Amino acid sequence: PQYNAGWDFLPKAFSIGITGGAYVRCLSVAEIRSVDLETLEAGKDAHLRLRAEVEDFNPIGCADADLDIMLRMDGVLCAYARVDDILLTAGINWIDLDVDVQDAKLWWPAGSGAQPLYDVEVCLECCGSKTAYPKFQYGIRTIRLDISRQEDGRRGFGIVVNGVKIF
Length: 167
Hints:
Blueprint: E1 30-41, E2 46-56, E3 63-73, E4 76-88, E5 91-101, E6 118-126, E7 129-132, E8 136-138, E9 143-146, E10 158-161, E11 164-166
Antiparallel strand pairs: 1-2, 2-5, 3-4, 3-6, 6-7, 6-8, 9-10, 10-11
């Protein structure tokens, strides 16, 4: 409880505060705030769509930017896409970018196949300044809920991963 911060009958035991590492980062031009990656098609080749949330810090102006996405597996570049000459307006901007992965290695649930993960890098260059979103891993797969009508008139309920029904 909060009263443990130095009353006469208890030791000082603070229950709030900064834990772990803390740092200050100075941002001057623009920053990638979030990245969402979605698999639109999964097969021999895969089609992905990236949606990046980019914030332009200039409250009264615009800026030109370029956005890159790179997918690597075991250090080897597997896919690359770029959108040039983006107009960033003050505040939050949403940028969509499609990327194709040739000979995609698909992710499968445990017991159904391998779970290969791609290392994803997203970089923004704006006004001579470069910034990168923290690297993350992504498994290429489609997942959907099949609630289609069955022969007896009732609806089914099943999970379909990469076009295959999974029990």
